[in-house]
Specification:
Chain B: Component of the oligosaccharyltransferase (OST) complex. The structure holds 2 protein chains of 2 kinds. Chain A has 3 domains: 255 residues, Rossmann fold; 108 residues, Immunoglobulin-like (Sandwich); 29 residues. By secondary structure, chain A is of the alpha+beta class. The longest helix of chain A is centred in the last third of the chain and has 23 residues. Chain A has 9 helices and 25 strands. Among the domains of chain B are: 409 residues, no CATH class; 188 residues, 3-Layer(aba) Sandwich (Rossmann fold). In chain B, 65% of the residues lie in helices and 5% in strands. Chain B is built from 45 helices and 13 strands. The chains are: A alpha+beta, B mainly alpha. At the A-B interface, α4, α5, β7, β24 and β25 of A face α44 and α45 of B.
Chain lengths: 434, 868
């Protein structure tokens, strides 16, 4: 099976500039690195869920000396799940840089940390823009948003329902119950536009060591602290970083949940739904767009010209599809815009759509010549960013494309010709009339 | 008869019609001599205008070899070779045939010799420019020629209409450039025509070969044109001398060696030829030449922006003639058609267009056009009114004229104020005020050829001509004719302009050659005559001319020529008072004057002087050949240096451009300082941001700002322009002085002129640009420094810059937003690629890194972490 996949993979190699093939962006082969194989069974619901969605999971111990991400320059996997929060050093040829290169070549990554997460995991997270609490023994504590349980603990088991408001990332169905979370929190740089807080802490949460007394104010507090974050890199590689490994565990999946101060008690925590939807997003089963068939031509023509003239009327069209996990479905939106751009947009038009993925518009080339670009910069929360640009020069009128006679200039024509005639007559008279 | 009497009284009017009756006159003369004399004297004005060509026409039927030769050569002027002796032999012609035939044979021989000399001069002009091909190779030189070459390629491939409408999207990205409307098409069309012509003859030369050899061919033409012009001014001898001087003047060679395919290559020919036709028209008063003059001016306008020199110099000459009382109908014919037809034709050139009537460079010609009409009117009125009435009319006209003038001045001022460039373009303003450019327009001041020249460059470029010019000016004043006045004016103006801009040395060169040619030929004339008169065997000086012509053709011809041209103004001065009877009387005084002028110098002194002159000229020739071979033949894209272990060739530029063309995408944009724009588009065929056509100051300032900004800011600027590669020229390793670091101050100035956050003092330490340890932090952090000196320390361990002769200030640094992709063999061209934007944005958690440094540094060293 894996050999077949490799053959398939190698067949796709030419297309794999950004790894997920343009045709099927979903990941297929996933490497799961574990601290120990106990996690395989304790988190089996999550793994089985992935398998049932068609993923081919390859479980390895994180310090297994035989593991490697790539062979002969080709990546063996499409995605990587790091459920090994305590690992200090990977086995084989893998290190933090290798994992980051893996991401930078367009592959997806799920990282789950834990209390006393290793520096290695923290470094990977930092490189992706997620800063875990520096105190290695700190946990997220919430004295008002904790999950009510049989034993009154130290309020590190949190029931959180502060989700990101995005149907693309979390699915169109509302997460039914709060998500149980036990682990470390992290902060994000607000100026970082690539990373998103998927599950935020409540305003009363803070990050500290529950076993010791607070000596100084905690560095991470309230809603600025994030529990689960996702990153969509510029090459559309997706990364999920969670401060809690147990969030994915069978125990949390099955556990009932009641948020402190809330009268409703849910039979089942929202973890399964949350994690499943999130993993769908991370593995590109949702929110992955592609734009094809960018076309432009003069009104009334079919072929794309090599150059436009100023004041030409042109039509522009593009088809946009979204990957549903199995097929490309038409993407429907009313906010796709095209720019006719030369250092700044000269034309900015919203594209009309036929709801079948076909977007089109028509406009007049501005009265400016230069090298223009048709630019579609479509960036929506949760969707892969579409950035299309197509260069097209715009030339001025040719010498014979101007009007031959301008009505306003008839007095001048008259003047010129009457002058010529007058001169001729004058010459004739002067020379021959004695 | 009544009309004839009227004509004689209104001199200027008649001249307008003179060509038509003149020709009929010529035929009547040639038919029968007896009728000519009354006819001639009955029309004094005609005699005046025809005094030079009329005898020539007489000689025409007899002297068949010479004109035929002339027609095959295209010398419209060759009859004049035979003409000089005519005024003297004219009265005696009918009487004695024997001396006349002798003179004719001599003249025939002289014109053949002159023709051979001219042919040799042409060969010399062509071959002295081939050093670059012999020593290097047959390539296009420098910067602008590459653009012209590229345009010519386009022209030959796509035809003239596509060339005219060519919108080039590969330069000035993203603005593009309308090549057809912004280029002087003369050179390109000339080379294209040459190419098509050769191909129609089935001579399959490549476009490049045609381009390489266009300049030498046209410098041969230019030397012939110089011959014609100088002959009009001072006769054949001076013409031949001037042509020989021009054929090898270093200043002109520097712009016209084989491969130097630039506008000036054909423009200098057009310039001289236009001047020649102007003087020819002035001397003959022929509308035919006036029309040719306009066409030649049109060719000049097509070829070079320097045509404004013509359209200002000629009006100045006309004005000077009017002021000095030299107004004549010939002047009117020479000038008025040029302004009308020339301006109309100039407006047809797309790059000039309405500039021909809207910019102040052309206003002088219109002003003089008005003045010459006023003057013509005054002469006309003077002719029909009695002196008393004329005085009254004068008072009336002056008062009205003043009012009109005031109105005109007001209109002109309004026009100047409302014209698009506030009248004058920056380049022209910097001509009038040499400090203007350096004060206000750094982009003009930054070009080395716009700098004022140094004294040594005068010696280098025109050599001994610099000392001969004053003598030539004196020679022009004895006697002063319209033509020699023009030569004097030309030299004075061009000396001034050359002092402003080193580039205009090129305009000075022909003037210097003409005047030096006059000076030399006059000097030889005087000395050889002195020798001749004192040689005992030649005491009988009535036969001197005849005998001497065989051995020393040039000088005697010239002697007589000067004497003849001397009597032209004399005739003019007396023209109004002159009556029919005075004409025969006039001859003896002329003869007498000649005899008086033939004052002889001591024999020994003359011999020594001749030897010294020959030595001087020999020195000039040696210098010219040296300059052509050593100084001006380097193509500047291939550099060579001689050292102890032989010849070193630095072919880094082509190496870099070839790398670009082979390793980058066709649509990639390459940013560099504008000097290398033309070469990049022509040789690497990649889109550039700015190039040597510095039409958009803001765009250049953007690149200058990027080069003088820190890495990140520069990256953002370049990224916004879709730049993929940055090319810098660095001479620090091999000591190539014209590299980007030496040009850096202009990047700062031009950039700072538009974007004020670039401040020049930030880059200066003690008023100097320094790159050593004293350099300012801004300097050490700017992109140009980093791109030039990145990894430089790895070459010798000390990072010693051989151009600045110092160790650089910051030796070890990394680039974060750029990566080096190519550096040529001698490090002269370095190409960097812009790194793509970071794929991920790092967190700010630095402490965890430092805490874990023990574990991670080892890894980091091992693998190159993508910092993005």
């Amino acid at each position: 099976m894996s050999k077949k996949l490799i053959v398939l993979f190698l067949g796709l190699v030419p297309l794999l500039c950004t790894c997920f093939s343009p045709d099927t962006p979903s990941d297929r082969r996933v490497l799961v690195l574990l601290d120990d194989f106990a996690i395989k069974s304790s988190h089996s619901i999550f793994f089985n869920n992935l398998k049932s969605r068609g993923f081919d999971l390859d479980f390895k111990l994180a310090d297994d000396p035989t593991i490697s991400l790539q062979r002969y320059g080709q990546y063996l996997y499409d995605a990587l799940i790091l459920f090994s929060p305590t690992i200090e050093r990977f086995g084989g040829s893998i290190d933090a840089a290798a994992i980051l290169d893996f991401v930078d070549s367009g592959h997806d990554l799920i990282v789950a940390a834990n209390s006393n997460a290793s520096d290695l995991i923290r470094e990977i997270a930092t490189e992706c823009g997620v800063d875990f609490d520096e105190d290695s023994s700190a946990l997220v504590i919430d004295h008002s948003g904790y999950a009510v349980s049989a034993t009154e603990g130290d309020h590190t088991l949190i029931a959180s329902d502060d989700f990101i408001k995005s149907d693309v990332i979390l699915g169109s169905e509302k997460i039914k119950a709060p998500v149980l979370f036990q682990g470390i929190g992290h902060s994000l740089n607000p100026s970082n536009s690539l990373v998103l807080k998927v599950l935020s802490a409540s305003p009363s949460a803070y990050s500290a060591n529950p076993k010791s007394k607070l000596t100084s104010p905690p560095s991470l507090t309230g809603t600025s602290m994030s529990l689960v974050s996702v990153v969509q890199a510029r090459n559309n590689a997706r990364i999920l970083i969670s401060g809690s490994l147990s969030m994915f565990s069978n125990r949390f999946f099955r556990s009932d949940v009641q948020k402190a101060g809330s009268p409703t008690k849910h039979d089942k925590s929202g973890n399964e739904q949350f994690v499943t939807e999130l993993s769908k997003w991370v593995f590109h089963e949702r929110g992955h767009l592609k734009a094809v068939n960018v076309k432009h031509h003069k009104v009334g023509e079919v072929d794309e010209p090599a150059i436009y003239r100023i004041n030409d009327d042109l039509e522009y069209s593009v088809e946009i599809y979204e990957w549903s996990g199995k097929t490309w479905e038409p993407y429907v939106a009313n906010d796709v815009q095209v720019q006719f751009y030369m250092m700044s947009p000269y034309v900015l038009k919203t594209l009309s759509t036929d709801n079948k993925g076909y977007y089109f518009t028509a406009f007049k080339v501005p009265d400016v010549y230069g090298v223009f670009q048709f630019k579609v910069e479509y960036e929506r929360l949760g969707y892969t960013s579409l950035s299309l640009s197509k260069q097209i020069p715009v030339r001025p009128f040719r010498h014979n494309e101007y009007e031959r006679f301008i009505p306003a200039a008839y007095p001048y024509y008259g003047a010129a010709f009457s002058m010529m005639a007058g001169f001729f007559i004058f010459t004739a008279v002067h020379l021959y009339h004695k | 008869m009544n009309q004839r009497g009227k004509i004689s009284s209104q001199t200027p009017q008649l001249q307008l019609h003179s060509p038509a009756p003149y020709h009929s006159l010529v035929f009547s003369i040639s038919k029968s001599h007896s009728q000519t004399r009354p006819l001639r004297f009955s029309q004094p004005p005609l005699t005046l205008s025809g005094s030079q060509t009329l005898p020539a026409a007489v000689a025409l039927p007899r002297l068949s070899p010479s004109p035929r030769l002339a027609s095959t050569l295209g010398f419209t002027l060759n009859p004049r070779v035979a003409s000089p002796p005519a005024p003297f032999s004219w009265p005696s012609m009918a009487a004695s045939d024997a001396p006349n035939g002798d003179v004719l044979i001599r003249n025939a021989f002289g014109s053949v010799l002159a023709f051979l000399i001219l042919l040799l001069i042409g060969v010399l002009a062509f071959s002295i420019r081939l050093f670059s091909v012999i020593k290097y190779e047959s390539v296009i030189h420098e910067f602008d020629p590459y653009f012209n070459y590229r345009v010519t390629q386009f022209l030959t491939k796509n035809g003239i209409y596509d060339f005219w409408n060519w919108f080039d999207d590969r330069t000035w990205y993203p603005l593009g450039r309308v090549i057809g409307g912004t280029v002087y098409p003369g050179l390109t069309l000339t080379a294209g025509t040459l190419y098509w012509f050769l191909h129609s003859l089935n001579i399959p030369l490549s476009v490049e070969t045609v381009c390489v050899f266009t300049a030498p061919i046209f410098s041969a033409f230019a030397s012939w044109a110089t011959f014609l012009l100088t002959k009009e001014v001072k006769g054949v001898g001076a013409g031949l001398t001037a042509a020989a001087l021009l054929a090898m003047v270093p200043s002109y060679i520097s712009r016209s060696v084989a491969g130097s395919y630039d506008n000036e290559a054909v423009a200098i020919f057009a310039l001289i030829f236009t001047f020649y036709l102007y003087i020819k028209t002035l001397n003959t008063g022929s509308l035919f030449y006036a029309t040719l003059n306009s066409l030649s001016y049109f060719y000049m306008v097509c070829s070079w922006g320097g045509y404004t020199f013509i359209i200002n110099l000629i009006p100045m000459h006309v004005l000077l003639c009017i002021v000095t009382g030299r107004y004549s109908s010939r002047l009117y014919i020479a000038y008025a058609p040029l302004v009308v037809l020339g301006t109309l034709l100039a407006a047809l050139v797309p790059v000039v267009g309405f500039n021909a009537v809207m910019t102040s460079e052309h206003f002088a010609s219109f002003l003089v056009f008005i003045i010459i009409h006023v003057v013509a009117l005054v002469y006309y009125i003077k002719g029909i009114l009695s002196p008393k009435m004329f005085k009254v009319a004068l008072a009336l006209v002056v008062s009205i004229g003043l009012a009109v003038c005031c109105a005109m001045v007001a209109v002109i001022i309004a026009l100047v104020a409302s014209s698009p460039t506030k009248g004058w373009s920056g380049r022209s303003l910097s001509l009038l005020d040499p400090t203007y450019a350096s004060k206000y327009i750094p982009i003009i001041a930054s070009v080395s050829e716009h700098q004022p020249p140094t004294w040594p460059s005068y010696f280098m470029d025109i050599n001994v001509l610099a000392f001969l010019i004053p003598a030539g000016i004196i020679a022009c004043f004895s006697p002063l004719s319209d033509a020699s006045l023009f030569a004097v004016l030309y030299i004075v103006l061009s000396v001034y302009f050359s002092g402003v801009m080193v580039r205009l040395m090129l305009v000075l060169a022909p003037a210097a050659c003409i005047l030096s040619g006059i000076a030399l030929s006059q000097a030889f004339d005087v000395f050889t005559r002195s020798i001749k008169f004192q040689l005992p065997s030649l005491s009988d000086h009535s036969h001197i001319d005849a005998r001497d012509a065989s051995s020393e053709n040039i000088v005697p011809d010239d002697t007589i020529k000067t004497d003849k041209s001397e009597d032209t103004p004399k005739e003019r001065m007396t023209k109004r008072s002159k009556k029919k009877e005075k004409e025969p009387v006039e001859k003896p005084p002329t003869k007498f004057q000649i005899k008086k002028r033939l004052s002889v110098l001591p024999f020994e002194a003359s011999i020594i002087a001749v030897i010294l002159l020959v030595l001087l000229v020999a020195f000039y020739v040696v210098h010219c050949v040296w300059a052509a071979a050593e100084a001006y033949s380097a193509p500047s894209i291939v550099l060579t240096s001689h050292s102890n272990d032989g010849l070193h060739v630095f072919d880094d530029f082509r190496e870099a451009y070839a790398w670009l063309s082979h390793n980058t995408d066709v649509d990639d944009k390459v940013a560099s300082w504008w000097d290398y724009g033309y070469q990049t588009t022509a040789m690497a065929n990649r889109t550039v941001i700015v190039d040597n056509n510095t039409w958009n100051n803001t765009h250049i300032a953007t690149v200058g700002t990027a080069m003088s900004s820190p890495e990140k800011a520069a990256w953002e600027i370049f990224h916004s322009l879709d730049v993929k590669y940055v090319l810098v020229v660095f001479g620090g390793l091999v000591g190539y002085p014209s590299d980007d670091i030496n040009k850096f101050l202009w990047m700062v100035r031009i950039g700072g002129g538009v974007f004020p956050h670039i401040k020049e003092p930030d880059y200066l330490r003690d008023g100097q640009y320094r790159i050593d340890s004293m350099a300012t932090p801004t300097m050490l952090n700017c992109l140009m420094y980093k791109l030039s000196y990145y990894r430089f320390v790895e070459t010798d361990g000390k990072a010693f810059d051989r151009v600045r002769r110092t160790e650089i200030g910051k030796k070890y640094f990394k680039l974060t937003h750029f990566e080096e992709v190519f550096t040529t063999h001698h490090w002269m061209v370095r190409i960097y690629k812009l790194k793509p934007p970071k794929n991920r944005i790092r967190g700010k958690n630095k402490k965890s890194k430092s805490k874990t440094s023990s574990t991670t540094t080892s890894k980091r060293k091992g693998t190159r972490r993508n910092p993005f």
